[in-house]
């Protein structure tokens, strides 16, 4: 029941096992909460892996479910201990989307649709800083710098020589046209996007405006998949004050189908490189024109 995964996925596996034990016992989360004199929301958070699980929690739940298999209890207790270990992101302080980073760190592949900005895992430092500064206009500079560093640290999954993350990104034309920072930053960013698209484990598809309406018009989403079959896929929807993680099979299937339609409507990999290159050249020309324009 244990493997070389991070604390976020380990908490999720442990929560799934605790839910299975509760269901086998025929108890509702409300009944368990009442017996342990805790809130029902605590039981729900323990089972969905969004809350740290202590060994005491595991002990109390196993007693409630009358688990007699000592080896199973010991295994769950060990998982609880390991799930409380800190991930690399904890060194950066309070990171609001730490749950997502935990999933991303342990994922085998990501399928991303981005309608507004270029994918975070494929951003240059200058572009990342401009994006974060624009999204958080009242944030102090040290907070912006921290978030940039976290984003760059996340990108190490792409360049990991032993187990690189498989990344498939469909990017809307709007994200390529929007001038984030300045035209030179955009040109450099799009050139970098093209270079990264040549990596064997990275696929980038451009979705031009003239492709018309498509299933992704409701907004950005990411599908995370894991190498262990026991770890079901997760759909991540980013929010302003809170994020949403969808794990039901029907939800994952719906978003996977949406993604297949997006891939079908987008340009293929070679066409996308050409399209993105032309966009980069357009931004570079604009930068030259801006530099040549007479000062007021």
What does this 3D model show about the protein?
With 296 residues, the protein is an alpha/beta fold. Helices cover 54% and strands 10% of the residues. It contains 13 helices and 6 strands. The radius of gyration is 22 Å and the shape is elongated. The relative contact order is 0.11. The mean pLDDT is 90.
Keywords summarizing the entry:
single chain, alpha/beta, six-stranded mixed β-sheet, 10% strand, elongated, DUF5753, Cro/C1-type_HTH, Helix-turn-helix transcriptional regulator
- Count of individual helical segments: 13
Oligomer: single chain
Distance between the termini: 68 Å
Which structural class fits the helix and strand makeup?
Answer: alpha/beta
Query: Approximately how much helix is present in the residues?
Result: 40-55%
Mean pLDDT across residues: 90
Brief synopsis:
The protein is an alpha/beta fold and 296 residues long.
Q: Layout of SSEs?
A:
Blueprint (H helix, E strand, L loop, with lengths): L6 H19 L3 H8 L3 H9 L6 H10 L5 H14 L14 H9 L2 E6 L10 H11 L5 H14 L1 H4 L6 E7 H5 L5 H15 L4 E6 L13 E5 L8 E4 L6 E3 L2 H17 L3 H24 L4
Parallel strand pairs: 1-2, 2-3
Antiparallel strand pairs: 1-4, 4-5, 5-6
Helix pairs in contact: 1-3, 1-5, 2-3, 4-5, 7-8, 11-13
Pfam families: DUF5753, HTH_31
Protein name: Helix-turn-helix transcriptional regulator
InterPro entries: Cro/C1-type_HTH, DUF5753
